[in-house]
Amino acid sequence: MPPGIAARPRDDRGYPVLAITPWTNGRPDFAVTSPSRILVCAVERRCSICGCGLGRGSVWRVLAADEAAAVLADPDGIENAAPTVEPPGHRSCMLYAAVVCPWLARPNARRRLDAEQPGLRIARGAARGRIGEIGGAVACFDAFEFTAEERVQFRYRGLREVWPHLYGEEHLPALRESCRTDADLPADTCPPWLGTDGAEARDRAQAYLN
After folding, report:
1. Rounded to 10 degrees, what is the CA torsion of 104, 105, 107, 108?
2. Distance between CA atoms of residues 77 and 91, nearest Å
3. Mutual orientation of helices 172-181 and 91-100 as an angle, nearest 10°?
4. Where are the alpha helices (DSSP H) in the chain?
């Protein structure tokens, strides 16, 4: 586990809670992500997984199956692709997410709960990928841009690397090596407004919108 994730608050089972996961009445809601927290991470250039600073270098994100297949077929096409709601993070953190998150790690994964956010609704039982084909990828980019209208959306520029997978555990050796050697591992700590207090994150996001 990358050190920034190891330092995250945990749920009752001991699972680390991502920086962009909302908290309600002292409990995390893993079924959705928080637009306020995503905006704060984007403005402050923080990893959406651990909440620590991204620095000035390249960023990483996880690609779903269809997007990964499209990028591998036409690496230059992502420059003109539609914006995505997927925020960036450190290499180690994105590898960790691809390995352990059931929704990201397995192409036949289905949602256990309904999820709804402004402009987006995913029903319980929705499939993430397509069995027998590419399951997804972890990709590196030079830079990202974002807009905050109905929801926070990102565009990524300068594709550097694409690491495809069928199952997320294929990245486990790279995750171990990344945790041992990565220069992008955070030197700071996650700020309190990306901790367990939902109101603090919302207030900070509203201040940025104002």
Report:
1. -100
2. 22
3. 150
4. 3-6, 35-43, 65-73, 91-100, 102-105, 172-181, 198-209
What is the spatial distance between Cα 74 and Cα 91, in angstroms, rounded to a whole number? 22
Residue 121: helix, strand or coil by DSSP?
Answer: strand
The pLDDT profile of the chain, 210 residues, written as one tens digit per residue, is 999 999 999 999 999 999 999 998 889 998 889 999 999 999 999 999 999 999 888 999 999 888 888 899 998 888 778 899 999 999 999 999 999 987 675 555 544 444 343 344 444 445 544 545 788 999 999 999 999 988 899 999 999 999 999 999 999 999 999 988 876 666 678 999 999 988 999 999 999 999
For residues 41 and 208, the answer to whether their CB atoms sit within 8 Å is: no
Whether 54 and 91 have beta carbons less than 8 Å apart is answered as no
pTM above 0.90, yes or no: no
- The whole-angstrom separation of Cα 61 and Cα 52 is 15
Total number of residues shown for the chain: 210
Task: Give the up-direction half-sphere exposure of residue 63: CA atoms within 13 A in the CB hemisphere.
Answer: 29
> Distance between CA atoms of 20 and 97, rounded to whole angstroms?
13
